[in-house]
Amino acid sequence: MNLRKFAVCILFLLGLFLHAQNVYLSKVEKTNDNNDKYLFQIGKDVTNAEYLGEIDVIGYSDNDLAVFANVYKKAKDIGANSFAYQPIETIDGKIQPFNPANYKIKLYYSSKEELSKPSDLVYIFSSSQKPQKISINKQEYVLQPRSFMSIKTIPGDTYVISTKKLLGSTIKISGQSGSSAQYFQMSSLRVRSNTYGEPGINLKSGDITVLDRSYGDFLRMIYTENQK
Fold this sequence. Notes:
Mean pLDDT: 85
Largest sheet: 6 strands, mixed
Oligomer: single chain
Number of domains: 2
Number of helices: 4
Helix content: 10-25%
């Protein structure tokens, strides 16, 4: 092997290393025996959830669905049905900004009543790699990669969401009291629907993908929220 080929191999292996991501079940406090299929995010103000353990995610990947699948599997190994982001502190006690290449997730078991509270929010996510132009009731926005925005709906109002692309998709959402949060991702990629009952992507309407809450909550944790 000549020097040039050797250098190419080293660069290739280095690229694989830099883009490798590992998901570890780093701490197990206890387990919970249940058949819950969901894995929802809970807020810091939830105090009655049962703490089960922690997951460490090390290394960066832009394949968010694959990362979520690994997190989901580790969480279900100990019976978790909910999670919360665990901020990392510096030596002097300051909270570090979220780092997609190194973060911690706390795992919990929460009651169905706690996780089924109604929400009037609609979450709209960009893709992991490209900015997405969207229109909401004819007002235009640009979502940068790995970002999202939320809409607080009003009962009785209708929200028309469309992509700013030739032959792009359009959906209509009606605000309803007592409804659940809704999650959509804007993307020009073709995504295969998953099997019913599995977490992740459920169905696709053109380039607007409907997400289930488990995957949507995970994206809310790792993406940056746009301030309208």
